[in-house]
Design brief:
By secondary structure, the chain is α+β, with helices and mostly antiparallel strands. Helices cover about 55% and strands about 10% of the residues.
Length: about 325
């Protein structure tokens, strides 16, 4: 029933593998799996894997996915999907639809292997994980935790979105929009649940143009939580929340930081952070993270030790429970980085 056979030699890891989807328990065709999931009223457990080269993928398969204890525990809730990205030509040729696999990798933003996604039969993700040591029982418990904390909020978000789309213009529409914005404020930064509500949230910019009901401001905050940044949204945050009392300004700058990819972008983001540091952060953890990131940018790609120390000092003053990150700031302040 194993999908891969792993042999350890003195020379390292030797892979004696077959494509991950060849097991009768795993399906290699995503669209076929969706059909089955809808028919059987199940969710999808999707493993993005490299069956003939990825060591951690092979460990996960060897230690968890190929065991009956795992398979029997999850079969009632999930259709198992193995989207394989092998490197050997003979294995690539056996993948049902490599182009579809690549498209799904892009769609779901998969950057590393293994990536394991829990999603409903509509392809909406509510859980994400990868390799985890401990064997089948530990992994099943881990998945159960992800399902418990992620599936209900996803259903709630879907219901809120449906109500908003069906609501008549006027007070009913605004009430439905209020529920959408509540959910966006509560979910994790950049989560799929926040992403699916983006278009609805943007409608607040038109439905409450003067922010008379506070929906426009809350939309700017919610969009930031969905990792939606633009110069226009930042300008709105500055206009609606000039002192960052609601956290709209820090939210947009946080989202801005995520998209920085070059020195001009970094300099622009740091200038915005300088102005923000003169105010009070609504979310202290976000304030620390922004200055921690800025300190590392300055210390490394920008090679400006004094600038790095400036942001490290602010991060230290804000404080954080992550001791390793605080130690990094100490190292920058002492000149060790």
């Amino acid at each position: 029933m194993q999908k891969n056979i792993v042999a350890l030699t003195l020379g390292g890891l030797v892979l004696l593998s077959t494509p991950a989807w060849s097991s009768e328990n795993w399906i290699g065709d995503f669209d076929k799996a969706v059909e089955i999931a809808k028919k059987e009223n199940k969710d999808l457990l999707v493993d993005f894997t490299g069956s003939d080269w990825c060591g951690w993928c092979i460990k996960l398969d060897n230690e968890v996915f190929s065991h009956e204890e795992f398979l029997s525990a999850v079969e009632s809730d999930y259709v198992l999907v193995a989207l394989d990205f092998p490197r050997k030509e003979e294995n690539i040729a056996k993948v049902p639809n490599m182009e579809r696999n690549r498209a799904l990798q892009t769609k779901y933003g998969v950057r590393g292997f293994p990536t394991v996604l829990l999603m409903n039969s509509d392809g909406l993700v509510y859980g994400k994980t990868g390799y985890k040591a401990g064997g089948p029982e530990v992994y099943v418990e881990h998945l159960n935790g992800l399902r418990k904390t992620g599936r209900a909020p996803l259903m709630k978000a879907q219901e809120a979105l449906a109500k908003f789309e069906k609501a008549e213009e006027g007070e009913a529409k605004l009430t439905a929009l209020d529920e959408v914005l509540k959910i966006m404020a509560e979910v994790d930064f950049g989560s799929p649940m926040a992403k699916m509500l983006v278009d609805s949230a943007r409608s607040a910019l038109e439905l409450d143009p003067d922010n008379a009901k506070g929906l426009k401001l809350r939309a700017v905050i919610g969009l930031a939580n969905a990792n939606e940044y633009s110069d226009d949204l930042l300008a709105l945050a500055k206009s609606l929340d000039p002192k960052n009392e609601a956290g709209a300004l820090e939210g947009q700058i946080h989202a801005m930081f995520q998209g920085v990819g070059d020195e001009p972008g970094a300099r622009k983001a740091l200038a915005e952070l300088d102005a923000l540091n003169a105010m009070q952060f609504k979310d202290k953890d976000k304030g620390f993270l922004l200055n921690y990131t800025a300190a590392n940018w300055a210390a490394r790609p920008l090679a400006d030790s004094e600038l790095a120390k400036k942001y490290a000092a602010v991060a230290k003053e804000i404080g954080n429970a992550d001791g390793l990150r605080v130690q990094e700031m100490d190292a920058i302040l002492s000149g060790d980085i």
